[in-house]
Amino acid sequence: MKNWSFKKWNTVLGWFLFAIALITYLSTIEHSLSFWDCGEYISSAVKLEVTHAPGAALFQIMGAVASIFALGNAENYSIVINAMSALFSAFTILFLFWTITHFLRRLLHKDVEQITKHQEISVLFAGVIGALCFTFSDTFWFSAVEGEVYAMASMFIALLVWLITKWENEYKSADNERWIILIFFIIGLSVGVHMMCMLAIPAICLIYYARNYTFSWKGFIVANLITLGILAFVFKIIFPLIMTMFGKLEIFFVNGLGLPFHSGTIVAFVVMAVISYLLIKYAGKTQKKIYQTAVLSLVYMIIGFSCWLVIPIRANANPPMNLNDPDTAIGMRDYYNRA
After folding, report:
1. Would you say 44 and 67 are in contact if contact means Cβ atoms under 8 Å apart?
2. Model confidence over 116-129: pLDDT tens digits?
3. How many domains does the chain have?
4. How many Å apart are CA 260 and CA 250, to the nearest integer?
């Protein structure tokens, strides 16, 4: 094998495993629905209804697109939503394989151009075994064939970890920060599927630490504390803070000033857009990449989180399934917090 062939075989084998997983899951999908939340999620996706808190906005949007392929036949809705889970699960296997081969190569302390023929075969073989083991594992296979959020959430976790490996491959490049910004955008989107996608954040932070810093116990502890800080900021501060701001402005403009419903929500959107603009402008003036990356990551994460708008929009339409009825900014805050 030549050096360039490792990249080629890595790509080809990844898509080959994707095909194996997709065929396996499509041939074994549920033709109706499973127990627990599957019926709720399938119905909410097809008709864009409101599920139980804290919602699954992006899953609903993707499910609504998938339901087009049912061609108006109600009996096919379950099949297309279940098939959507099978597709996302196959992508999980694809990203998992590429992540395994990346970390095995890093374990050898070799770049692509330094790896030997025997090492190439060992790395690729190990990647295939690891990906296939996960493909046919009981728990993952179970979620891959039903209309639940876990298949899509698993795909987002695998995607996030794979994206940080792409950054690691290009960390010396002048524009390597684009991968970090993309990661935060995906994190924002993933909140619209399931909160468990946040579990990828510690892995991302520790990979960043391992690439940029020499290991020491002090540095490792500090890196873990920073990781917890980022996780708390994303999960417990920034999103709840946005919800709180929208809720308080809604109360002020409606109850305090006597303006129509949702007037405070409109003002909150304007305020958030202005703050984002000022932050980007300030970061640009500093000419410091760390500030620019942090600000753009925050703004893009909020843009990804905007998929949640489908929930209050549809709640205002009063669909048959409208759990918690989060049709206002205050209702959305309580909905997010599972109040």
Report:
1. no
2. 888 889 999 999 99
3. 1
4. 10
